[in-house]
Amino acid sequence: MKFCFFVLKSITTHELKVNTIKRIYPQQIYNNFLKIQFFLLNNFVYEVHSNMSLRDKIDNDYKNALKSKDKNKISTYRLILSGVKDLDINNRSGPNKKETDDEDIKKLLKKMIKQRSESIEIYKKNNRSDLLEIEQGELDVLSEYLPKQLSEADTKKICEEIIKSSGASSIKDMGKVMGELKKNHADTIDFSKAGQIIKNLLNSQ
């Protein structure tokens, strides 16, 4: 980070040096100099963004949506931020007071994604393309903050591997299998679907 701040400081003085560089160096060297500065600045921005909390990323993206006047994103971010505020109230007023962290926000996002996925299926069946488009737009925004979810086929494969490695042999072992899934794939598996897959696999043994 110290190096990145040094680079950023150097870039702020770039305009003062440009004419001097042009006079001293050939055009190709000057162009390479600009490319290097651009590359370093991009790395700096990436590092800062990657170190942001999930709340800060969402808040920052909300501000960008306001600037670009993207109505769909603006309304979706407002729903997310409203949900985060509710989390703040619950976490501060409950018996075990705590600050809302990234894991709390991820759970909120997963819940919102599940709601929209269910609504999309209903709208598909009823040929409501207008409402489906709105829900899909919200789903796309929400999904940006979570790792890509595994497909049903990949989920089934992982469930089969865990059942085999854990020695699960009946529906009574379902809790054990789910526990292993949550331990290793908490962010990438839809557990509502995984539960049914595990149930079917254990019942077929």
Structure commentary:
- The chain has 205 residues and is mainly α.
- The chain has helices at residues 2-12, 14-24, 27-50, 54-68, 71-93, 102-125, 129-143, 152-166, 174-185, 191-203.
- 80% of the residues lie in helices and 0% in strands.
- The model is unreliable at 1-12 and 43-49 (pLDDT under 50).
- Helix 4 runs antiparallel to helix 5 (71-93) and helix 9 (174-185) packs antiparallel against helix 10.
- The protein is globular, with a radius of gyration of 24 Å.
- The longest helix has 24 residues, at 27-50.
In short, what is this structure?
It contains ten helices and no strands. With 205 residues, the chain is an all-alpha fold.
The helicity comes to over 70%
Strand residue content:
under 5%
Biggest pleated-sheet summary: none
Count helical runs.
10
Report the radius of gyration as a whole number of Å. 24 Å
Give the SSE string.
Answer: HHHHHHHHHH
Query: What gross morphology would you assign?
Result: globular
Structural class: mainly alpha
Q: State the low-pLDDT regions, or none.
A: 1-12, 43-49
| End-to-end CA span | 54 Å
How many extended strands? 0
Please give the oligomerization state of what you see.
single chain
Mean pLDDT: 82
List the main descriptive attributes of the protein structure presented here.
mainly alpha
Write the layout of secondary structure elements.
Blueprint: H1 2-12, H2 14-24, H3 27-50, H4 54-68, H5 71-93, H6 102-125, H7 129-143, H8 152-166, H9 174-185, H10 191-203
Helix pairs in contact: 1-3, 4-5, 5-6, 5-7, 6-7, 8-9, 8-10, 9-10
